[in-house]
Structure formats: structure tokens, C-alpha cells
Write a structure and sequence with these properties.
Blueprint: E1 2-8, H1 10-14, H2 18-28, E2 31-39, H3 42-48, H4 58-65, E3 69-77, H5 80-88, H6 101-105, E4 114-116, H7 120-130
Antiparallel strand pairs: 1-3, 1-4, 2-3
Length: about 140
Amino acid sequence: MERTFVLVKPGAVARGLVGEVLARFERRGFRIRAMKFLQVDRELASEHYAEHREKDFFSDLVSSITSGPVAAFVLEGPEAISVIRRMMGVTNPLAADPGTIRGDHGLDIEANIVHGSDGPESAEREIALYFSESEIV
């Protein structure tokens, strides 16, 4: 079993898509190990997107993720990281396949509905940023 981190972004929360996104993962068989709503502050956003700190779009990422509440999840299941990333679709929703979360609900690349860890190391790091061990069941 593998754990991964998923974040439903502010625009998707505002559009009422949290249930739709989470239901897709649950129907696929992934188990929710932790979940919460929160408002990401600039410090947490900077840590979340640390690998992009030197890139031109870093401030846009921080502004976007801090613009409203998010829903954060730890999901668990077989090959969770790769399967969930396929379910989300490519980052640019205009290029994402129909049937993927981003392909069905994304509006633009900056409001691409959802974030998911891209590997075991980032999953571990991102889970630790958003959840304490005692919050994960």
C-alpha cells in the first residue's frame, strides 16, 4: 500500500467540486487516511512549492493556493501516486483527456483543480507539511 497527498485547490473548493474529486478516488478504491479544510498561508505555500522558488511563476502559484480554502487529503491504495496522477490528468486542463479530473473540470492551468504528489519523496514531504502523524488514521 502506498500513501499520497492530494489537495483540492481554492477555485475547485469555491465551485463545489470537493465531493466530486474525492468521490472519484473513493470509487476507484482509495482509502481516506486524513482530510481537512484549511486556509494555506504564504509560509506554507512557499514550503509547498519550494522546488519552484526560483521560477518566474512561483509568486502566481503562491497567490493561487492562498486565495481561498483548500481541501487536503492523504489517500492510500495500491500504486496510489501514479494511479491518482493519471486520474487527475495532465497539469494543463486544456490538454487533459476527458474522463480525468482536470479534463472534465479544469478551466486553465493556474486553476487546474487539484494537486497530487509526483513521487514517494514529495508525498512524504507534502503529507508532513499538512498533517501530523496523529491526524493520519
